[in-house]
Design brief:
With 198 residues, the protein is an all-alpha fold. The protein is built from 7 helices and no strands. Helix 3 (47-72) packs antiparallel against helix 4, helix 5 (106-122) packs across helix 6 and helix 6 (129-151) packs antiparallel against helix 7 (160-181).
């Protein structure tokens, strides 16, 4: 029985690492075509979708998080929504900082998802804060490799600012997961009816 449990955990770890590696590979393999897709969308008059699409998707994600917390989990602690509001402000500030290159805003979604997948993989080997730190380092590595690959591609450049953007996007994604992962405070045990009264 114990052997089956260990085998199941090993399979779960292998699955989560495989998903993370496959997702990272998709990011890397689409780099050569990304610029061509962008130009095609601009030629088709879809520049507004490039500029506003990521903003709309992040807004939808944050609203979905709010819905899950308030209506599904009945979360009523003000601190949870304080964190969520601040995450929204952070996303807004990053969006504003990328106003001159709006296509880069897609990194917020790209690396936000990567952070979630990295955390799932990391939790098979680390617990608590160590798992979150491992996930953050993994996302940083993926974003750094992303930029190194672009150094060797025509019409693409290595930009340290994009490495920072990728890392921030991953941290914001981890922030969303952290808010969703908050557990309700433990309820203090009610005194037993059999306990003597004084």
């Amino acid at each position: 029985m114990k052997g089956n449990h260990v085998s199941g955990k090993a399979k779960g770890a292998a699955r989560d690492w495989l998903i993370l590696c496959a997702y990272s590979l998709v990011i890397f393999l689409t780099l050569p075509a990304a610029r061509a897709v962008q130009k095609s969308m601009q030629a088709a008059g879809l520049e507004g979708l490039i500029n506003g699409g990521p903003v709309l998707l992040v807004l939808i994600v944050l609203l979905a998080v709010f819905y899950a917390l308030w209506f599904r989990r009945r979360e009523r602690r003000p601190s949870t929504y304080f964190y969520l509001v601040n995450l929204g402000i952070a996303y807004f500030l990053v969006f504003q900082s990328l106003a001159e290159i709006p296509v880069e805003r897609v990194h917020l979604l790209e690396y936000g998802l990567a952070s979630y997948l990295a955390l799932r993989a990391a939790r098979h080997h680390r617990q608590g804060a160590a798992a979150w730190l491992m996930a953050a380092v993994l996302v940083f590595d993926i974003g750094f490799i992303d930029e190194v690959i672009q150094y060797f591609l025509p019409e693409r450049v290595y930009d340290p600012r994009d490495v920072v953007t990728n890392a921030i996007s991953g941290l914001l994604g981890l922030g969303v997961v952290l808010v969703l992962s908050r557990r309700p405070p433990a309820k203090s045990p009610e005194p037993s009816s059999d306990s003597p009264e004084y």
